[in-house]
């Protein structure tokens, strides 16, 4: 019998791909138009723009092997641009020995490679999951039904997973674990010529956590483009503000951090995106590695404290558990 994975981000596709490699039949469901989740990139006239995950690292041997394979396939590259830090009003170089990787030509490229080998149902927003004597059934918002499935893996944020579960199971999930993040991409008409690839912002007063120069990434735009990630607190405080507000905030923060006059940059175009479930600041109180009901599992970076690598490991290790018991 087929297994179902709900969510085509890194955790869901890692799990589905590993299960299929082991000989299982797997179907993947996602509300988006394609694979990626928070690793999705937006296509623009200048090239892809990364609005979610900015890079990933590989510290665990299993994931290092996977990244090496992606490097050979040409869907991942190293990001070698210099890192900076902004603290107490000062911007300074912050070199380290960390190896940073990005998908190429888009952050979601390695996920699309996995998805291309799988049975994927995109533009399919799951509304209910039901367990019967025949197995699990999935129904989408258009009342289309899929199944039966032997097992179901929910590889989505806990707040979204809770909406699909009966109350006794839903209340066990840490629905507030993932906090929002507004992301703003600014395409400049004139380059600042700044050398920074990424800037870790440690000044809470700005409401910004991270800035990156997207054209410093291999395969991205050649025109200077800056991406601003706002902190969970500032994003939550102004969650319903419009794109004009967020562009103004991003321009102000960029000028402040780079030490430029507010009228010294001109923006050709701006792209604002709200991630409702993005930033994780603590580990969940409970362990979600085991099935939460017979044949029903959870996967995601959030189960292990965040990060792309943990998303992949979450899905891969869950596949091994399902396969080997």
Automatic annotation (TrEMBL):
<dbReference type="InterPro" id="IPR036188">
    <property type="entry name" value="FAD/NAD-bd_sf"/>
</dbReference>
<feature type="domain" description="Amine oxidase">
    <location>
        <begin position="102"/>
        <end position="322"/>
    </location>
</feature>
<dbReference type="Pfam" id="PF01593">
    <property type="entry name" value="Amino_oxidase"/>
</dbReference>
<keyword id="KW-0732">Signal</keyword>
<protein>
    <submittedName>
        <fullName>FAD-dependent oxidoreductase</fullName>
    </submittedName>
</protein>
<dbReference type="Pfam" id="PF13450">
    <property type="entry name" value="NAD_binding_8"/>
</dbReference>
<feature type="signal peptide">
    <location>
        <begin position="1"/>
        <end position="18"/>
    </location>
</feature>
<dbReference type="InterPro" id="IPR002937">
    <property type="entry name" value="Amino_oxidase"/>
</dbReference>
């Amino acid at each position: 019998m087929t297994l179902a994975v709900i969510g085509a981000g890194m955790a869901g596709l890692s799990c589905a791909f590993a299960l299929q490699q082991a000989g299982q039949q797997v179907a993947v469901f996602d509300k988006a138009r394609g694979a990626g989740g928070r690793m999705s990139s937006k296509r623009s006239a200048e090239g892809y723009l990364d609005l979610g995950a900015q890079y990933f690292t590989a510290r665990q041997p299993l994931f290092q092997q996977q990244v090496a394979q992606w490097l050979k396939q040409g869907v991942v590259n190293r990001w070698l641009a210099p890192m900076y830090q902004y603290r107490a009003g000062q911007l300074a170089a912050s070199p380290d020995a960390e190896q940073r990787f990005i998908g190429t030509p888009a952050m979601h490229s390695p996920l699309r490679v996995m998805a291309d080998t799988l049975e994927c149902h995109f533009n399919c927003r799951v509304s209910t999951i039901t367990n019967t004597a025949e197995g699990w059934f999935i129904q989408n918002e258009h009342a289309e039904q899929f199944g039966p499935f032997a097992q179901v893996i929910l590889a989505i944020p806990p707040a979204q997973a809770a909406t699909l579960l009966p109350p006794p199971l839903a209340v066990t999930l840490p629905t507030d674990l993932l906090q929002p993040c507004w992301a703003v991409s600014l395409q400049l008409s004139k380059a600042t010529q700044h050398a920074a690839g990424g800037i870790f912002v440690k000044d809470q007063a700005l409401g910004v956590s991270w800035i990156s120069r997207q054209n410093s990434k291999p395969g991205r735009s050649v025109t200077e483009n800056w991406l601003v990630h706002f902190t969970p607190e500032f994003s939550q405080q102004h969650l319903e503000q419009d794109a004009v507000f967020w562009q103004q905030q991003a321009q102000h923060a960029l000028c402040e951090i780079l030490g430029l006059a507010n009228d010294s940059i001109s923006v050709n175009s701006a792209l604002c995106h709200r991630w409702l479930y993005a930033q994780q600041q603590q580990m969940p109180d409970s362990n979600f590695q085991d099935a939460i009901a017979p044949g029903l599992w959870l996967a995601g970076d959030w189960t292990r404290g965040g990060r792309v690598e943990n998303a992949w490991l979450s899905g891969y290790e869950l596949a091994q558990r399902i396969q080997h018991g």
